[in-house]
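Hi support team,

I'm filing this because I wasn't sure whether my run with guanosine-5'-diphosphate finished correctly. The job status page said complete, but I'd like someone to confirm that the output block is well-formed before I use it downstream. Pasting the exact inputs I used:
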Amino acid sequence: MAEAEENACIPILRALSDESRWRIVRLLAGRESSLTLGEIADALELSVYNASRHVKNLHEVGVVTIRRDGRFKHVGIAEHYRGSIQSAAAGSGDLDLGCCRFDFSREPGERPPFSNFQLRENATISTLSPMSSSPARYIMIGGFLGAGKTTAVAAVARHLSEKGHRVGLITNDQGRELVDTAMLRSRGFATEEIAGGCFCCRFNSLVDAAGKLTEEAKPDVFIAEPVGSCTDLVATVTYPLRRIYGEQFTVAPLSVLVDPMRARRILGLEEGRSFSEKVTYIYCKQLEEADVIVISKRDLIDDATEEELRAALEERFPGTRVLAISAREGVGMDEWFEIIESEDQVARPAMKIDYDIYAEGEALLGWLNATIEVTAEDEVDAGPLLKAIAQIIQNRLNGKSAEVAHLKMTLSPDNAFAGEVAIVNLVRNDYKPELCQELDEPITSGQIILNLRAECDPDDLAKIVADAVSSASSKACRLTLEHLENFRPGRPVPTHRDA
Ligand SMILES: Nc1nc2c(ncn2[C@@H]2O[C@H](COP(=O)(O)OP(=O)(O)O)[C@@H](O)[C@H]2O)c(=O)[nH]1
Ligand SMILES: [Mg+2]
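And here is everything the job wrote out:
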């Protein structure tokens, strides 16, 4: 067969190598009519989210078609495969892709059962199964709130997936309902979330999350994004991981990302609003423990600004490598990929840190997560709606002289497919809310997830958000605050600390 034809076959082979996708095709193949996402999820006992993710993948490789009918989307086998797949499901034929054939008359083979095994320190975690004889890679990408971690995680995950790795992502936050999880899942990555505390204080949840991903996606690389106000991660996360699970993971050097404008202000290279002393203490401790400092958003600064910042970072944190990247534009990524793929973290004495100042710094930050229902009489555009809400919140924070660390919002339309989500971010008071991902079509109903972190009393944040929701709500587009939690992060009490 011609090489071009063989290559055309590879994405379909990849798509059908997943058991859930195989079962979806088998389910659809046995019927005359199409099914809605909910019907597929029910029939195969999948979550709607997972069904949607798999259907999106099958759609991308052309095996299924999606027809929109009002609020519902109907999924069916693509016309040109219908004949052969249906006869295959009935036991009288095969799906012939040219290079290979699939027999849909059989149930997919049972996978070997996951084994329980005894972890050192007497903890038995049944969900963490050995992925293969070689250890999995653990990559942690830290940095302050708004530094660009999630965007960079997505870029690293995409790069490694394209190289044939199975990638599992772990997000983390003090609260629930995370924009980051929604964003990363929208890009099609298997993602587990550890909510309600940081990795260091919920170390066992970190291992559990890796275990859940192992069951579903069997990753050989885990990429973890810690909470943006967290530090001392080497002593409390990566060293214990190596000590306890040293045979199952190799650990990459710790990368810590910095937003260039925020870093320039913290290092005194530029005037402008910033955080108070104890919050700045956390920021600097994050950089002190970095193996690699990564200046993010390189596309936003010129060469001279980058040089000045790079020199200041190298002087303040001698011996630490400093790189500059733009995850958005794919600039400077290869040098960083090389480090996180091929180098192992070198053990050195843990950083000295004053947990009282750290705790006080964290407690100065207000944390708020909310969900907001959107119901429109007519269709509305998601992007302008999110930007309007962000703008009101920004104005109110400015009125209180409260520095925002990160405001992020997603809007997912009801009955959306995975990937259909609009995203708006704001990372400094004197910056503008940015629409980072748009929807193709206007919406009539949906849900907003809002995550706000700012140096502000959390009760004030709650008032500001409630006020913004009611101000942006109108008769034509009703916004209802469904759920809101607000708090100051508690004192960090790590599960382990290996000095
Ligand atoms: N211009 C530009 N913006 C970026 C880049 N990476 C991230 N951002 C933006 O920075 C904001 C915060 O990014 P995010 O990845 O959520 O940061 P996190 O809080 O550290 O996870 C978002 O508005 C991103 O779109 C980049 O390379 N270039
Ligand atoms: Mg993030």
